[in-house]
Amino acid sequence: MSDRPLTSVGRTKRRHDAVLKTTGAARYTADITLPGMLHAKVLRSPHAHARIVSLDASRARATPGVRAVLTRDELGETPGYGFFIKDQPVVARDRVRYAGDVVAAVAADDEAAALAALAVIDVVYEELPPLPDVPAALAEDAPELFPGDKPPGIVPPYGTGASGHLWPRPNVCYEFRYATGSEEVWEGCDHVFEDTFAFSRMNHFHLEPFVTVADVRGDRVELWSSTQNPFPLRKELARVLATDESRVRVHVPFVGGGFGAKNNCKTEPVAALLSRMAGRPVRYCLTTEEAFLTLSQHAALLRVRTGVMADGTFVARDSEILLDAGAYTDGSPLVAEKACYRIPGPYRWEHVNSTCSAVMTTTTPAGPYRGFGATQATWASESQVDMIARRLGMDPYALRVKNLKGLGEPFIPGDGGIDSDLVQGLDAVADELGYHERPAHPHRGMGLAIGFKDGGGVNKPAQARVKVTATGEVYVNAGSVEMGQGISTALCQVAAEVLGVPAERVTYAAIDTDTTPWDQGTNASSGMVVTGRAVQLAAEDARDRVLAFAASRLGCAPEALELVDWGVRKDGCETVPLPSLVAPVFGGTGYEFTGEGFFKAPNSAEAPLESPCVFWEIGWAGAEVEVDPDTGKVTVLKLVASGDVGRAVNKLVCRGQDEGSALMGYAQALFEEMRYDNGVLVNGEALEYRVPMAEDLPGQFVSITQEQGHGPGPFGSKGAGEGPMVPVAAAVANAVHDAVGARVRTLPLTPERVFHALRESAAAPAE
Amino acid sequence: MSEQLTIGLEIDGRPHTEEIEPRTVLLDLLRERHGLTGVKASCERGVCDACTTLVDGVPTASCSMFAFSADGSSVETVAGQSPGGVPGPVQRAFAECGGFQCGYCTPGMIMLTTALLREHPEPDDAQVREWISSNICRCTGYQMIIDSVHRAAALLKEESA
Question: What is the CATH number of the domain that holds A556?
C-alpha cells in the first residue's frame, strides 16, 4: 500500500475554503451575532505612564442603553494574564503603563451607546515618567514599570546550556541565556568584529480585527473568537474567570489573518467578564487603531561580536539582544528565548554565548509575530556575515558556504540535525538572481541572506481524530486554525492520501474546544508537521479499523486488503464496496469509523529548549537593488525568496505562504514600521501606517518552493509560512552594501538612512 | 432620536426602500440590515477597502459612504456575483489561482476585479497592479491575485465567446 503513487499529496489542489471565501459566504467571528447581543467598547489611557488617582464610572452606569460597566472596582480578585508572566490586568488597577492601556469597559445596546458612556467616565491621573524605549527603561534612574512585588511567572525546565531568569534587573521581565563551547577559543581568533544593529517594529495588520463574542450563561462560558490557539486560551480564560476549564467552550470560525497576534487573551477577558455581568452575549470588536495599541512585533537592539580566522572560518559568536517588550509581557519571554537561541545562525561555531533580555517600556505590548525573534536575530546575524566577508576581502556567498552546517549536522549539541541542504537552497536563490554573474555597476548590487529558525513549536503536542462515514465521507478533526495559511486543505489532503479517497470527500471539521482534539496552537509553522503527523496517524488508525472490519467480514487478514475509493481490494482482485459490508453489521442508517492520532517530539534533557526542534524552517532570500546616490532611495529590481517545505502537500498553498511572508519582510526592509516620537505612536492607523500594496511590489518577485525531501512531517513535508520573511531585510541591506559600499544597520532602509550611510562610507571608505 | 430618511436603492439587482438614520453608513446597512456579511469591515476609514462594493459600477469603500448617498443607486456586492449559489467567473478564477488566503480582502478584491474587467477586458500587468493597489491584502504578496485577475479575464472572454 505504501508503494502506491500519491493521489492527493503533492497536487496543486484547489483549496477547500475556495468557494466559501470567494463568494463571501465564509463566516468569521466578526460576522457572528446572537439574540440580545450587546456591544463592548473600552476606555484607554491617554498617558504613557500614570497612577490612577481616582476613577468614577457612575455617570457611565446611568447612561441609556448601558448594561454593564467594568472598572477596577468590579475586578475583585480577577488575576492578570500573560504567557509566562501573569502581569496584564483585564482593566487597569492602580496605574496605566502605555497610551492605550485599558482603563474601563462598557457593554451597551450598541457601540454608540458604549462610546457615549466611556466619554463620561471620570479618571484622574497622576502622570509618571514614561519609558519610551529600551535605553530609557535601562537607565540607572529609570522608574520601574512594575515596582515592588513582581507579577507571578514561570521559567520552563531548560536543558543543557540554556537558562531563563524572571525579572533579573529593573524593567527586564525575562532574560534568556544560551552558551556552548569554551570561551578560550576567542584567544585564537585572527579577527574579532563587533557590530550593533537596530530592528524596527511592525504591526500585524491582520484584516479581521481582534474580535470575540462571549455568551456567559449560568456557569457556562461560550465564546466565538478570532484566535490562533483556542486550547491555551480556554485554559487561561478559565483561570482569569475563576472557573473550571471544562466550563469554557471556544469556537473558532475562519480567522481573517493572525500573523502571531491572535494568541492567548486579547479581547476575550473583557467580553467574557462583561457578558457575565450583563447576563447577555457581548461582542467586543476592536478598531484597526486599537489593534495598534494591542500588540506589535518587538523592536530590538542587537550587538553581535564574532571571532573568525583569517581564512574566514567562524570560531565564536557572542550576542546580546535587547527586545522592546512594551508595557506587558505577553509572549516576550518566549520571543526572547527564540531570538537568543537562533542568533548564531546555521553555521559551525566552536563557541556560542548569547543573551536576550525583554525590556519593559511604556509602549504597545509586543508579542508573537511571524518569524518570532528569528527576524530580529537574522537581521543582525546575516548583515554581519556580509560585513565580515567584505572586511576579509571574501565573497559573502563563499564565506557562508565555507561555514554553513551540513545536512544532518546538529544545530548545537543536543538539538536536531539541520534538515535542509543549506548550500543547495542558497544556490537556488543565487542562481535565479544571477548573483555570481552580477555586473559591476556603480549603483546596483546584489545581496543574499539565510533565515533560520526552529519550527514546530517548543515542546508542542497535538492530537487529531479522523472519522469516516459508512459511505466514505471523511472528517478531519484537529485544532489547527484556518487563518489563511491553507492548513485545513493540506490536512485534508493528508487524510485523503492515507484513506485512498479523493481530497474533495474530506471535510475539515469546525473547531469547538468541547469536541475538537487538543492542540497547543496554530503557531511556529507547526500545523503541517506536528498537527499533520497527528492527522496522518489518526487517518492510519481509521484505515486500520476499516481494514480490520472488512477482513473480519471477508475472512482474510487485514494485510491482504487495500483501500481503494471506499472499497476494499484483496490481492489486486475485484473491489468490494464497503457500504455493502457495513450495513449488515451496523445497520442501514450509518456508522463512522474513528481513528485517533497524537504527535509530540520526545523530550530530552540535553535539548536546550526541552525537546529537539521538530524541523528547521529555513528561508533564503536574494535581492538586486539600485540605489539613488543623491536621495538614498533604494529600488528593489528583483527579489527572490525561497523556503524548503520538504515536500509540498499543496503547491498552491506553499507558494502563497512563501510570497506572502517574503513581502512582509520586504516591507520591513524598505518602509513599514510603527513610528514612535519619544514614546508616542505617531502612525497608529491604516492611512499613515503603510503596509505593502501591489504597487510596492519589487520589479521582479520570484518565489521558489523547494522540496528537498528531508522533512519529518507527513510524506516528507516541513512547515512553511515564516521562513522566507526572515532573511529579506538582511538580503536587501547586503545588496545596498554591494551596490554602493554603504552599510545600514537600522531598519527600515529609508532614503534618509541610506543617504547618511552613503555619506559615512564616503568619509571613511575603509570597509 | 435623529430624524429618519427614506431612500431607494438597488442591492444586487433587487430594489429596496429603506428607512435609515442619517448617520448610517452603507457598510452597516448592507451587513446589519441585509445580512450581507460578505462585505467585510476592517479599517473602516476607506484605506484597506475590504468593504469594496460597486456603486453604479464604481468601486467604493462602503465603510466611508453614507447610506443616503447611495439613494437612487445600484449597489453590487460579492453576493451578487454568484447567482443561484454558482460562483461567477471572477470568483472561479480566484479559487483556481489561489488568489486568496484568509479571505478577508477577497470579496473586495473580487468586486474590484469585476469593475476592472468591465473597463479593461484584457488588462496588462501594469493596469492590474494599478487597480489592485487600491485594496490591501496582507496574506498573499499580491502575485497570486494578479494571476487571478488575468485568469478571470480569460474566463470572461471564454464565456462571452
Answer: 3.30.365.10
